[in-house]
Every structure is written in C-alpha cells, then in structure tokens.
Amino acid sequence: MSRAAALLAAVLLVAGCGIRPTGTVAAGDKPRAGGRGDTITVYLVRDGKVAAVLRPGLPDHPYLPITQLAVPPTPQEREQGFRTEVSRPLEIRGFGVMPGEDVSELIIVPRGDDRGRPVSWTRPAEAQIACTAAALPGIERVQLWNVPQSGEPVVVPVTAVRTLACEDYADLFAGPPKAGPSSSTSPRRPR
C-alpha cells in the first residue's frame, strides 16, 4: 500500500494541478490616464494681499483646494511672487448648515501633534482659508478650529473656534484670479 501511495504522489506531482501552460495572452493596449479634473481655486499671498490662483484639480476630490493651502507654491507661482501663509496641513472635519441660519459652513482643523496648543494664524492665512473655502460650491463660511488634531479626541474650547467669511477680508483682495498654465475655466468670485 505504501508503494501505491508513493506512486500516486509521484503521478500527482508530475501532473501538477491539471493546469496546463498557455503562454502569453494578449490583453490589449497599455492603460492610459486620460481624465483631467477641473481646475481648482486656491488663494495665495503676494505683497501682503490674497489673490486667486488656478491649479489643476483631481476628480472626486472636492476639498482638494483646502489641503493645497499648505503646499508650497509651484515654481511659476513663486516667480509671480506668490507664497502661502498656511503653515500647517488642514483637514476637513465636517460640513453643514448651521441651525437657525441659512448658511453652510465647512469645519477645518489644522493637523498636527501639538498636544492641544492653539495655533496662531496670520490675517492673510485666515483670508486664504476663508476665500479658498468660499470658492467651493455651496460653502459660505468656515469654522476654523485653532487646536491641532492628531486623530485622538480633543475637547476644543469655544475660544479656539473662529468663524471666517471671505468678505471679512475684502481689504486684502489683490484682484482677479491669475490663470495657471493648465487652467481652462474661471473660478467664481467669493461673495
């Protein structure tokens, strides 16, 4: 019986699992990324004023402009004198219409691990955040939490939450949006 078992094992080993080699199978052309996202509007600072700059967007990333605020300007933007005052990555924590008001707000929180220490924002940084958010469809103002979040729940005191609206920074507007090299549409002007 052991000889028969050894013979059966050898036959199975030689036969494989019954799958025969097929060689290379053609699957068509290589994949190509042909989709382009819409342009996004990001407010940057130049000479102490905020101005809209158009950048390429990504499909299905509606809040990309907010996260782009902490990204350094492109070489072309730097050549034009643009910079960002937003020194920390930002995270969207919520969106909603405030009770008793007909105003939609975006809740934005700085990311980081500062053990709950408040973040100080310059006025141009606040304008960048408020106006970039206002350029998003349906957003009218921002609740900016000044306490960094690192994933763990933190009690945020009322004094650490600021409500920002783009029109509150009208004295910092530099002018109409500057189109980037790949832009094709104009952003809407904040209210």
Q: Briefly note the structural class of the backbone.
A: alpha+beta
Shape: elongated
The helix fraction, in percent, is 10-25%
Neighbour order of strands in the largest sheet: 3-4-5-6
Describe the largest sheet: 4 strands, mixed
Q: What's this entry about, in short?
A:
This protein is α+β, with helices and mostly antiparallel strands.
Plain-language structure description:
This protein has 191 residues and is of the alpha+beta class. The chain contains four helices and six strands. The strands form two sheets. Strands 3-4-5-6 form a four-stranded mixed beta sheet. A two-stranded antiparallel sheet has the order 1-2. The longest helix has 14 residues, at 2-15. The protein has one domain (39-172). The protein is 19% helix and 21% strand.
